[in-house]
Fold these 4 entries.
Entry 1:
Amino acid sequence: MGYIEEIREVVGTRPLILVGSVVIILNEKKQVLLQQRRFPNGSWGLPGGLMELAESTEETARREVKEETNLTLGKLNLLNVYSGADQYIKAENGDEFYVVTTAYFTDDYDGEMEAEHSESIQLKFYHFDELPDTMVRSHQRMVYDFEQHEYIPMDE
């Protein structure tokens, strides 16, 4: 049983504040990697997930990406930290939580991409102007924020 499941045993479905990380992974064509998630309802999102005890947000990002995509990340660049009322989620099982999400971006990764099928339907790179309509709303905002800012090139 993981950390979140242990907390849920004690507090039930009451709202919690949880910390997570996601990563905007870019390929050589500057397309973004998205994961079609089994829950909720086959929506698309950025690879990532919730923090475990004693992890940093960067460690969470690396672990979750490895678990979900089989990719090993190199250098991570901080995009932003997202929190607030618009980060409220009510899961299909009734669990309620607010997520504080640290979003990173990178084009530095290695490995053979493979979807982890208990959580994922598929993985696919998308051009920024062709993102799926069924994308997680908060992840859409993160991708939009990434597109709107001029960042120092990652290869420098």
Entry 2:
Amino acid sequence: MALRFIGIDPNTETEESPTVWVDEAKNELVIQGWKPNRELEAQCAVFEAPGHAVGIPDHEAVVRVPARMVPILREACDVAERAELH
């Protein structure tokens, strides 16, 4: 896996903070975030939308990242999109 570091939470004071990478081989975003509390996870587990199964499969996870990381996520999306075009 060829991960390209994109950014870390700009308000971080430790090495344990939300982080974003792009897996350039698979054109996927890789996101490290905070684990949700049980209430948020329960809300996500009952979310219904067309084409979206109710529940969180065992092979998936919900993570939280602060809104201040939106520019970092945009950059990651741009990097992944450019990689896909090549």
Entry 3:
Amino acid sequence: MTLESDIRDLQHRYETDEIDADSAGADALDTLDAFLASLERGDVRAAEKRDDSWEAVPWVKRGILLNFALRETEPRQYGDVTYHDVLGLRGTDDLLTKGTRNTPDGTVIRRGAYVGEDAILMSPSFVNIGAYVGDGTLVDSADTIGSAAQIGDDVKLGANTVIGGVLEPIEDAPVVVEEGVALGAGSRVTSGFVVGANSVVGENTLLTPRIPIYDLVEEEIVYGHLPPERRAFTRFVESRMGEHDLFEGGAYKPAVVATDLEATTLEGAQREEVLRS
């Protein structure tokens, strides 16, 4: 039996009402523990890139959801605080050997999250189950990385950045931030949006499939992804609503404009290199 087949078997037993959180035995919990450990080692991931397109790995997302369905809420300890959850926090003993730093007082890494080598996690920050944080990535203060989100190598997440989680439907790919990206402070990436490699995103930019990307490089409008090697920032464009009695001067909607990545902009985004040495 493989881990994938074990998870599929648990899913079948859960769907046929053979087991639930009250009746899941040691064998089921052992399988879930092995699954979480595999996520934490990076052996399995919630999404994979195939033929230049990111796709969800449904059985992995099923395994994540089963941890909520088949575990009971328990009192747990975080420092002097007692909290109540179905999952505990991820162990961090491996981070020292990886050369990864996580600062105290609020750096929370939940079970089932992968953190790579030479990464930096500043407090307060939160990394949820199924998330993948690549080598050399900087997670700054007040950042949130949602369930199953995939963050590539050498990424910079500016302070107060939100990376959304996508667990259901299980076929939907999670949010992906590819390698070398710099997200400005206050940026938000949601609903399975893919940020292309080596892009620089301006502060307070919202990236979601519902907002158009005006790509001035290819001179086209795209949705759901930012092409690689772009400099992106928020602008407002005219809305089809036009004028309305409630306001004057026409209506506008948010959009994102993507231009060529200027060398000077990239240098500015990489000034924190000394922090990684």
Entry 4:
Amino acid sequence: MLSTKKFIKLSQVISITGLSRATIYNYVNAGIFPQYTKVGRSTFWEYNEIQEWIEQRLAERQHSKAS
């Protein structure tokens, strides 16, 4: 079964995460943030991957509080 995929632009990623443009690209290059997709000259991220990344950060926070 296919799940719904939605591309979002950098401005939306910044708004959702609160990260700066430079931080997002630094994290992508370091392999700790979802990879973007180029469509023509535009750059997009997959919305669910961004949400999963946020959920992982929250889970890590909860885990560190429990330790």
